[in-house]
Amino acid sequence: MFRREDLPSGARDVTVALWRVTDPGNVGALLRTADAFGAAVALSPECADPLGPRALRASAGAIFRVPLVDWNAVAGRRIALVAHGGEPLSGLDLEPPLTLLLGSEREGLPQSLVTDSYLATIPLPGGAESLNVAAAGAIALYELSRRSSS
Predict the structure, then answer these.
(1) Which of 1, 56, 138, 140 is 20 to 30 A from 82 in CA distance terms?
(2) What is the C-alpha to C-alpha distance for residues 128 and 52, in angstroms, rounded to an integer?
(3) pTM of the prediction?
(4) 58-111 pLDDT, tens per residue?
(5) Are strands 118-121 and 77-81 parallel, antiparallel or unpaired?
(6) Total structural domains in the chain?
(7) What single-letter DSSP state applies at residue 48?
(8) For residues 138 and 134, what is the distance between their CA atoms, to the nearest angstrom?
(9) 44: phi > 0 → left, psi -120 to 50 → alpha, else beta; which?
(10) Rounded distance between C-alpha atoms, residue 18 and residue 21, angstroms
(11) CATH number at residue 81
């Protein structure tokens, strides 16, 4: 049995902060994506347990490499990914340090987090309404990576 106290901790230039993401598959997938792009992860209260069987399976071991940051200690500018009404992600300053805020698929992010953040939207061609939270996080981390490697 693994305990949260045994997991990596510490800051990185980019943190993916998950607000009440209750699907363990999405939590695990975002941990795996954060690992691929060198980001840390912060989990709000009420997020799925990253050590649950489905999250562990989806993370493919990333949970043991990705630092978990305390929700109240996220650093840098905060960019809230919202389905509608934000600036296109491609047009925002994404220079680290920063925190990408992702909300639950059902409720999104609360107004208190959105108010203190830059709002970003991923434009979707073809009329799609929104993205799965894990897909949105992956696209945002890829955009950061693409810019830093250019």
Answers:
(1) 56
(2) 31
(3) 0.92
(4) 999 999 999 999 999 898 999 999 988 999 999 999 999 999 999 998 889 999
(5) parallel
(6) 1
(7) P
(8) 6
(9) beta
(10) 6
(11) 3.40.1280.10
